[in-house]
């Protein structure tokens, strides 16, 4: 548990970056600090490991006042991940990861062995261990940054916009893997981002800060979307918050229709096959690949990949209402495709049915 | 003196350099080998002293960001007129030694050489430490390194390429300037230059110059080899070609899948 107790930071030039912040980050959970640029997120985070000393107030790490021990000893118990990873250019990946264990006096062979384990754990090929940071992509460096922060198995992790500098596709991968990792490790995490979507996706609780370093609202992501406390939070959370809130509502047992399908490679279906001029194409394992139009003239003898419309997203059975609704809205046939855990076709639903369900629940 | 005289001079200089008699010392004359040794001696002493002063100072100034004016002052000293300073120092210092040893000449010479060698080492060490990326320094402190550990384990290794280049330029300057030792009666390769000039023995004078240049080249090569082994490949960027191609491919695969 990390607890801010009236923590204030006033910089020498008079800027009040954080103003009387009181907030608790519960053990084993992800607390996200989010807010517009310059609202004091980084300052708040860095006061925890005393990279910045609070002007007044106290920050507690469980029952310890963080001001009561030497800063470097405090920091060795706290994992720290920053935006551009900050890997040591002169050290190999494995030695970068082993840094804190070595600082703590652990034996070199053991520290390296643990580092190797972590390199794999964050999804990197062990072959990277002997390389240098300059030989890695931004996304890979960021994984190493996470592995390095985890190396001494600290109960607490601080992360300052760790995924902001990578492109959206990699960012999504990193976020997914981060959540999976946290699922296994159960660290107490304080995570800073300016991206409300990231905050909502990753946070067990989200603290919205306003410029001037004041806490505007602390809530679980679903509550934040449903009940912003004021105009600032409502504006920051964004316009389509109603739609995004569906992301926290499980679709539950949504009834699906059986959806006719044709295998890729099979003979082109006859005119008017499927429903309303569309038939779903699946691969040999029954995984949906795309939609084939059947209302027009036949385009060939067999169904090939090139003929398919791939615009539609797939909703996982038991996933969120948002995913199901999105599958409907993005599908050229207007029918949202639902798949099981292994990606095989279960059936389809229409947007109308999803909306009825939302109304019934609302 | 024009084109006609130039070519014979090359042969005469080569002749002077390749005469085994010039390489050995006699009871009256120190040969090339002896003067080379003396020249290396002056240079090594000056470089070691300069390194002992400038390296820690540059590291400390770079790490703390304080007293940066010291670097500016040192750089201003680069404009020092060496011969003038040397003569002045000899006039001040040598009377204290009553001519019993050559310390009265050696100390002024070394002072001048040290003063020349400090600025490049100091300013490059300072710049090398300053240039370490803020994110890297931040991560180092954030992981719980002490000031000393950040300096020794992170800033120094990353500053090494610049430190080496500062040291190499100091070394070239010291080797070239150490010829002035001979101006105040000491040995060194400058002896051939000054004697050659005085005796209008130009092959000897040019030969002396060639020897200084050769010494500088060989010394630079040796330090370059040391640098290759001391500086981390991660900093110098010398990766095995195949692994770096691999990782670029791997990076593309990761980012696009
Ligand atoms: N060292 C500093 N000196 C003066 N003001 C600072 C300093 N660091 C940050 N600030 C100011 O404090 C405020 C909060 O900064 P920061 O915590 O970095 O915000 P965020 O991470 O939310 O973008 C900003 O107005 C910023 O300009
Ligand atoms: Mg910030």
TrEMBL record, chain A:
InterPro entries: AAA+_ATPase, ABC_transporter-like_ATP-bd, ABC_transporter-like_CS, CBS_dom_sf, P-loop_NTPase
Source organism superkingdom: Bacteria
UniProtKB keywords: ATP-binding, Nucleotide-binding, Transport
Homology family: Belongs to the ABC transporter superfamily.
Taxonomic lineage: Bacteria, Bacillati, Actinomycetota, Actinomycetes, Propionibacteriales
Keyword ATP-binding listed: yes
Protein name: ABC-type quaternary amine transporter
The EC number(s) this enzyme carries: 7.6.2.9
Location of the ABC transporter domain: 2-237
One example GO MF annotation: ATP hydrolysis activity
UniProt organism field: Nocardioides mangrovicus
């Amino acid at each position: 548990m990390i607890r801010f107790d009236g923590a204030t930071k006033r910089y020498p030039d008079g800027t009040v970056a954080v103003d009387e912040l009181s907030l608790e980050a519960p053990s084993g959970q992800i607390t996200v600090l989010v807010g517009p640029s310059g609202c004091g997120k980084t300052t708040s985070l860095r006061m925890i490991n005393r990279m910045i000393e609070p002007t007044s107030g106290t920050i507690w790490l469980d029952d310890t006042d963080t001001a009561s021990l030497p800063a470097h000893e405090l920091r060795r118990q706290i994992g720290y991940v920053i935006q551009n990873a900050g890997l040591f250019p002169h050290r190999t990946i494995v030695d970068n990861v082993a840094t804190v264990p070595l600082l703590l006096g652990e034996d070199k062979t053991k520290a390296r062995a643990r580092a190797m384990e972590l390199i794999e754990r964050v999804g990197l090929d062990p072959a990277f261990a002997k390389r240098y940071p300059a030989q890695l992509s931004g996304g890979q460096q960021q994984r190493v940054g996470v592995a390095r922060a985890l190396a001494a198995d600290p109960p607490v992790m601080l992360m300052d916009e760790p995924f902001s500098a990578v492109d959206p596709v990699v960012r999504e991968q990193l976020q997914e893997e981060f959540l999976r990792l946290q699922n296994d490790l159960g660290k107490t995490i304080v995570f800073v981002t300016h991206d409300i979507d990231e905050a909502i996706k990753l946070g067990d609780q989200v603290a919205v800060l306003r410029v001037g370093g004041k806490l505007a609202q602390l809530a679980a992501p679903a509550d934040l979307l449903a009940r912003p406390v004021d105009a600032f939070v409502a504006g920051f959370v964004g316009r389509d918050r109603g739609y995004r809130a569906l992301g926290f509502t499980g679709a539950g047992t949504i009834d699906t229709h059986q959806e006719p399908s044709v295998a890729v490679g099979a003979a082109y279906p006859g005119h008017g096959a499927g429903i309303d001029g569309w038939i779903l194409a699946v691969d040999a394992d029954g995984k949906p690949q795309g939609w084939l139009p059947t209302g027009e003239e036949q385009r060939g003898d067999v169904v090939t990949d090139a003929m398919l419309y791939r615009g539609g997203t797939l909703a996982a059975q038991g996933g969120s209402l948002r995913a199901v609704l999105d599958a409907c809205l993005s599908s050229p046939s207007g029918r949202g495709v639902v798949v099981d855990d292994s990606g095989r076709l279960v059936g389809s639903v229409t947007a109308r049915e999803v909306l009825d369900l939302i109304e019934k629940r609302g | 003196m024009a084109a006609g005289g130039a070519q014979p001079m090359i042969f005469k200089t080569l002749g002077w350099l390749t005469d085994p008699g010039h390489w050995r010392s006699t009871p009256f004359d120190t040969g090339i080998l002896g003067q080379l040794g003396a020249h290396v001696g002056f240079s090594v002493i000056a470089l070691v002293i300069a390194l002992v002063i400038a390296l820690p100072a540059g590291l400390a100034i770079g790490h703390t960001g304080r007293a940066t004016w010291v670097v500016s002052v040192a750089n201003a000293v680069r404009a020092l007129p060496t011969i003038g300073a040397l003569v002045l120092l000899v006039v001040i210092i040598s009377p204290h030694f009553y001519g019993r040893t050559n310390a009265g000449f050696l100390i002024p010479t070394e002072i001048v050489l040290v003063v020349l060698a400090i600025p490049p080492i100091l300013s490059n060490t300072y710049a090398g430490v300053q240039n370490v990326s803020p994110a890297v320094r931040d991560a180092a402190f954030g992981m719980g390194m002490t000031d000393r550990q950040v300096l020794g384990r992170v800033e120094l290794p990353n500053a090494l390429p610049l430190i080496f280049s500062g040291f190499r330029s100091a070394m070239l300057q010291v080797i070239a300037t150490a010829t002035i030792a001979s101006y105040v009666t000491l040995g060194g390769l400058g002896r051939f230059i000054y004697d050659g000039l005085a005796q209008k023995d130009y092959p000897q004078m040019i030969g002396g110059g060639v020897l200084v240049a050769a010494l500088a080249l060989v010394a630079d090569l040796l330090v370059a080899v040391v640098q290759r082994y001391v500086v981390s490949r991660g900093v110098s960027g010398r990766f095995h070609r195949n692994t770096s191609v691999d990782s670029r491919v791997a990076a593309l695969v990761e980012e696009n899948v």
